[in-house]
Specification:
Strand order of the largest sheet: 3-7-6-5-4
Distance between the termini: 83 Å
CATH class of one domain: Mainly Alpha
Pfam families: Adaptin_N, B2-adapt-app_C
Family: Belongs to the adaptor complexes large subunit family.
Radius of gyration: 34 Å
Shape: extended
Subcellular location: Golgi apparatus, trans-Golgi network membrane
Keywords: Golgi apparatus, Membrane, Protein transport, Transport
Oligomer: single chain
Structural class: alpha+beta
Membrane topology: Peripheral membrane protein
């Protein structure tokens, strides 16, 4: 090799390091790097070939080049840290090869040791944790790492405990007994989180408890009282607790759980009361007699919203558990007077048509429904009535012939709904073929009461949901979250968020407010850029130069809570420039947003003293009426949602 310091050394070095035959041989390539890098005065020549090695397509070339960076710095420690080299190593933390990632961490730690070592920010930490399973080559190292993580399961922070639990579950995916042991150990922290004063933490913890119960059904059974509802808890937490209670029922606690649920059935919240009744219905699939007795007692209260749901529950029970048919039929007479809901009427008609042998007055109850068919607005009720009357006609023709004829005539000649009319024509033509054909088609064999309920689905293995633990999947559900993820457009690398489609933000709006959101085709949906910041000076200058493009008034009650409003606006990528403090009169806020085409939306919110209305003024950098109307729709939905939460 020529003497060092000449131009020939550079050529020789580049030739050696770029030689594909040398690169193809891992040992030769490493030897060249190790030999050349130790020579004095060669640093300025070696840096460029090493940078090229960091970007090489072959993973083993990148592995050696990364280690070469640390050796180069170590052997020439008197030189300053090269920022470009450090940046290149940080970027390789996202390399697909796990050994390259490990070597990067070691090299960065060595190069930056005088500055405190490698800096791990939140995005890098999340990425490395997600890749942790690929970085552990053997079982011995796996358990060494699990032992190091063990202390985090005892942390006082629920976030740390849940994060460590997920890491345990992923790393121990080949050791189910280790996963089960970890879930047993985090039972206490999860129960504490379920009783937390923080409603958000409590709700998320309950969602994760439900996820664990998919694999370990009896995991929290001994602590079932922890999931009893308190009167001050919000509606969404009560619903989660009721769902958990359904999964914790066993022979020892069934009586206590049912008594607790019976108390919820008369709650002032109609939705919560009905959810509790449905929960009793779910438990009835296993503990039929106790549940049917409670449901029958609830019918005696003669309250419309209770009777409606009890009848729906009875319909499901007689289909799934034929052995309870007799008790259900004895409880039904008289309940038709307290059912005004469409779903409840449909359920009652189905029971009357399928189990008429146990209900003597079934034809007379159906006759009342048939006489009111013209005023019935729900097509499904009419179709169910047709089927029930035809079934009843086969067993009790004398009582049903006249009313069936009148109902068929109305459905065929006067009914405007085509589905109902077609059902009526089908049954009429079926009757023309003969009673035997009607029975063969309409009256399928009934379930044998001696047959029990089909077994539930087998327990899901922990590995089927371990990757979803400590994410929003347990909160939204896998299918719903997949839809949100699709709308959000998350095909990206790195911590930055993509441009967000408002169709994602609609998923975060409550059900009752979804009707206010205008459905837009994906190709025309409003795309607001996240984290688009404006300085106050730029906003003021632009605001003064534009005319008001839209102004309207929205209803509002009480004071504005800036933190809540600002968080809701951030969900849809509307940034807050300035906002008055709580209680200020008049109250003002200035907002900014920018869509994917560069169009600016500058907004002023104004709430006058003693006024129950909020004035919205929007200025637009480009005159685009259609896009403006969509932005207004977004803003209306957010403000309307916050207003509903306050009320």
């Amino acid at each position: 090799m020529p003497y060092f310091g000449s131009e020939d050394v550079v050529k020789e070095l580049k030739k050696a390091l770029c030689n594909p035959h040398i690169q193809a041989d891992r040992l030769r390539y490493r030897n060249v790097i190790q030999r050349v890098i130790r020579l004095p005065g060669v640093q300025e020549y070696i840096q460029q070939p090493i940078l090229s090695g960091l970007r090489d397509k072959a993973s083993y070339v990148r592995r050696v080049a990364v280690l070469g960076c640390a050796k180069m710095h170590n052997l020439h420690g008197d030189s300053e840290v090269d920022g470009a080299l450090v940046h290149e190593l940080y970027s390789l933390l996202r390399d697909q090869d796990p050994i390259v990632v490990v070597n990067c961490l070691r090299s960065l730690e060595e190069i930056l040791k005088h500055e405190g070592g490698v800096v791990i920010n939140k995005p890098i930490a999340h990425h490395l944790l997600n890749r942790f399973g690929c970085l552990i080559p053997n079982e011995e190292e796996l358990f060494d790492i699990l032992n190091l993580l063990d202390s985090f399961l005892k942390s006082s922070s629920p976030g740390v405990v849940i994060g460590a639990t997920k890491l345990f579950l992923i790393l121990a995916k080949k050791f189910p007994h280790v996963q089960t042991d970890v879930l047993v150990r985090v039972k206490g922290p999860l129960l504490a989180a379920c009783s937390s004063e923080s409603r958000e933490l409590c709700f998320v913890a309950l969602c994760h408890v439900r996820q664990i119960l998919h694999s370990l059904p009896g995991h929290f059974s001994s602590h079932y009282k922890k999931f009893f509802c308190s009167y001050w808890e919000p509606h969404y937490i009560k619903l989660q607790k009721v769902e958990v209670l359904c999964e914790l029922v066993n022979d020892e606690n069934v009586q206590q759980v049912l008594e607790e649920l019976r108390g919820y059935c008369t709650d002032v919240s109609v939705d919560f009361a009905q959810a509790s009744i449905f929960a009793i219905g779910n438990i009835a699939r296993t503990y039929t007699d106790q549940c049917v007795q409670i449901l029958t007692e609830l019918l005696g209260l003669r309250q419309e919203h209770i009777t409606t749901v009890v009848v729906q529950t009875f319909r499901d029970l007689v289909w799934l558990c034929p052995q309870c048919t007799e008790a259900v039929c004895q409880a039904l007479p008289g309940c038709e007077e307290n059912i005004q809901d469409n779903e409840g009427r449909q359920a009652l008609i189905w029971i009357l048509g399928n189990h008429e042998e146990g209900i003597p007055n079934a034809p007379y109850v159906l006759e009342d429904f048939a006489e009111n068919a013209k005023s019935e607005t729900f097509p499904a009720v009419k179709m169910e009535l047709l089927t029930a009357l035809l079934r009843l006609f086969l067993s009790r023709p004398a009582e049903c012939q006249d009313m069936l004829g009148r109902l068929l005539y109305y459905c065929i000649e006067e009914e405007k709904d085509m589905a109902v009319r077609d059902r009526g024509l089908f049954y009429y033509r079926l009757l023309l073929l003969g009673i035997d054909d009607v029975k063969r088609i309409l009256c399928s064999p009934k379930s044998d009461p001696s047959l029990g309920l089909l077994e539930d689905q087998p327990e899901r293995p922990v590995n089927s949901w371990a990757s979803d633990f400590n994410t929003l999947v347990p909160v939204y559900g896998k299918a719903h979250w997949a839809t949100i993820f699709k709308h959000q457009g998350t095909d990206h690398c790195g911590p930055e968020l993509p441009h967000t489609n408002f169709s994602y933000a609609r998923q975060l709006i409550s059900e009752e407010n979804k009707e206010r959101v205008q459905e837009l085709p994906d190709s025309e949906a409003l795309m607001l850029i996240p984290n688009c910041q404006f300085t106050a000076e730029y906003f003021e200058k632009t605001w003064l130069s534009l005319e008001v493009a839209h102004q309207q008034i929205l209803p509002w009650q009480g004071e504005v809570h800036p933190d809540t409003l600002q968080m809701a606006l951030q969900v849809v990528n509307i940034q807050t420039i300035a906002m008055s403090r709580v209680g200020a009169q008049p109250w003002k806020a200035y907002l900014s947003a920018q869509d994917a085409t560069g169009c600016l939306f500058l907004t002023e919110l104004l709430l006058e003293p003693g006024n129950s209305k909020m004035q919205i003024s929007v200025k637009q950098s480009e005159t685009r009426t259609e896009i403006l109307s969509r932005f207004i729709s977004v803003l209306e939905t957010v403000i309307g949602t916050i207003g509903d939460m306050k009320s």
